[in-house]
Specification:
3 helices, 505 residues, mainly beta, 5-stranded antiparallel sheet
Length: 505
């Protein structure tokens, strides 16, 4: 009996630890029996490592109690990785967003400090603002941090491709494409907000420096070409408006509260030329330059502008879209030709006056120019009178008669069609200053007559002129008495007529 029982136990043990030969076909019962020795069919826990050459998971794996290297779990379908995990190979995150995004969040979020998210930082400076990000990085830099750079998003490229072309093989640290293919869409390639506070409120921090964008170019070879910023495109149509560079208000909520010191600035000694404005066309003959505008508001609050441009003929032009405005300098003005004759031209639109104004602290005193009738003129604005005019090909006419204090030297013939002018000298050759002549006739009454001078005929005094007289009625003598610069007395015979001539100053 004992022998039969022992034989039965041996037989059952052999079945429980069955050995299968290669190529043997097993039943489902046999496979389940063997798998149950390691992992129960209804589930179990592996206490050792599991090596799987290839694993394909057909449905998402829900993680409800944390993942490998995790200290906490953020919910079903999420894994919190701790201690700076390293991920190699190709991996990706795919969402299923199809409805409108109405609240802030992120498809992939990286936080350096629990609770400090991108949305919490954003809301702190912009109440009510929300953002949804494909990749969100929120770094909190602790006090005492000593590393050179703490980057929210950093890219490092070691470009060893020496066959780069405009379309292939180029190293690009950050590349993006955004499409705006629906009406009223608004696309921003980049939008950075820098603030010297954690909330949008006036602060008293010191030593803060806000730098929007900095590009460092460290050139080590003289054969390298550097292009700071390029604004290019492959447009198929001319847009309604296109500004390559715009400096907006530093306080858009209250324009004028804060202003830029300089909208554009170059530091001393940093550029060979501060700016270069090209021509209106890429090539061609007699092509003008691209104009530069200076905008202002006139007396009616209308926007006007001065335009600075090199014309197609090579002349530098300054054009005012308003009227009645002049080019003003606070120092002298020199026009010098590089060779030959230097010239200054004052032109007009035709059949109009051209003027050169001579002012005294803003008050016009003299005008020299061309009248609409093409006469050259000199005008005394203080005296409201023309001093001289001369038509083209004509003679210079002074109005009224002009006195030349230092005299006038004439090397050629002198002729006069009106009052004329003749120099007067004394017996020693000394010139008499501002001389003039007076002539006339008077009839004596009882042998005497007095002539009174007026206007331009008046002399300075009784001794500044000399008069001579003759009796034109008979051969009789006439005596002349110069009582003053305005009165002359003649004495002669009865009622004879006396003719006189006076010269002096």
């Amino acid at each position: 009996m004992k022998r039969i029982l022992a034989l039965l136990l041996f037989f059952l043990s052999a079945i429980a630890h069955a050995q299968f030969t290669p190529g043997q076909v097993l039943t489902a019962a046999q496979l389940n029996s063997q798998f149950s020795l390691y992992v129960p069919i209804a589930g179990g826990t592996l206490t050792g490592p599991l090596t799987v050459p290839t694993l394909t998971v057909s449905t998402p794996i829900a993680v409800t109690s944390g993942g490998t290297g995790a200290s906490t779990a953020t919910g079903s379908g999420s894994v919190v990785l701790a201690n700076s995990p390293s991920l190699t190979g190709t991996f990706g995150l795919t969402g299923s967003i199809s409805a409108a995004i109405t609240s802030g969040g992120a498809l992939n979020q990286t936080l350096s400090k629990s609770g400090v998210t991108g949305q919490s930082i954003y809301t702190g400076i912009c109440a009510g603002c929300t953002s949804y990000d494909a990749n969100q990085s929120a770094l909190t830099i602790p006090s005492g941090t000593s590393v050179t750079t703490v980057g929210g998003f950093s890219s490092y490229i070691n470009n060893q491709n020496g066959i780069g072309t405009p379309t292939t093989g180029n190293g690009v640290n950050f590349f993006s494409i955004q499409t705006c293919g629906v009406n009223n869409a608004s696309c921003w390639g980049n939008n950075n907000v820098l603030i010297d506070n954690t909330t949008y409120a006036t602060s008293s921090v010191t030593g803060v420096k806000l730098t929007g964008t900095e590009y460092d170019f460290d050139v080590t070879s003289p054969n390298t070409t550097v292009q700071g910023i390029s604004l290019l495109g492959s447009s198929l149509a001319q847009p309604v408006s296109a500004n390559g560079f715009t400096v907006g208000s530093l306080s858009v909520q209250s324009p004028g509260l804060a202003k830029w010191t300089y909208g554009f600035a170059t530091q001393n000694g940093v550029a060979t030329q501060a700016a270069n404005f090209g021509a209106l066309s890429a090539s061609g003959s007699n092509v003008a330059s691209q104009p530069v505008l200076q905008t202002y508001f006139d007396g009616t609050a209308t926007v006007r502008s001065w335009q600075y441009q090199v014309a197609s003929n090579g002349n530098l032009t300054l054009t005012d879209s308003g009227s009645g405005h002049n080019l003003q300098t606070n120092s002298g003005f020199i026009a010098k030709a590089p060779s030959g004759t230097g010239a200054v031209t004052v032109d007009n639109a035709g059949s109009q006056a051209s003027e050169l104004l001579l002012n005294d602290n803003g008050t016009n005193k003299w005008q020299i120019g061309k009248l609409a009738n093409n006469n050259l003129y000199i005008y005394d604005n203080a005296g409201s009178a023309f001093v001289a005019q001369m038509p083209s090909g004509g003679t210079l006419a002074f109005s009224p008669p002009t006195t030349f204090a230092a005299g006038v030297a004439v090397t050629g013939a002198l002729s006069a069609t009106t009052t004329g002018a003749m120099p007067l000298y004394g017996t020693t050759g000394t010139a008499v200053n501002a001389p003039h002549m007076v002539q006339g006739s008077v009839a004596l009454a009882s042998g005497t007559a007095t002539v009174t001078l007026s206007g331009s005929a008046v002399y300075t005094s009784s001794s500044s002129y000399v008069c001579t007289a003759i009796d034109t009625t008979a051969a009789a003598a006439v005596k002349v008495g110069q009582t003053s610069g305005t009165s002359i007395t003649f004495t002669g015979t009865s009622t004879d007529t006396v003719q006189f001539h006076c010269t002096g100053s």
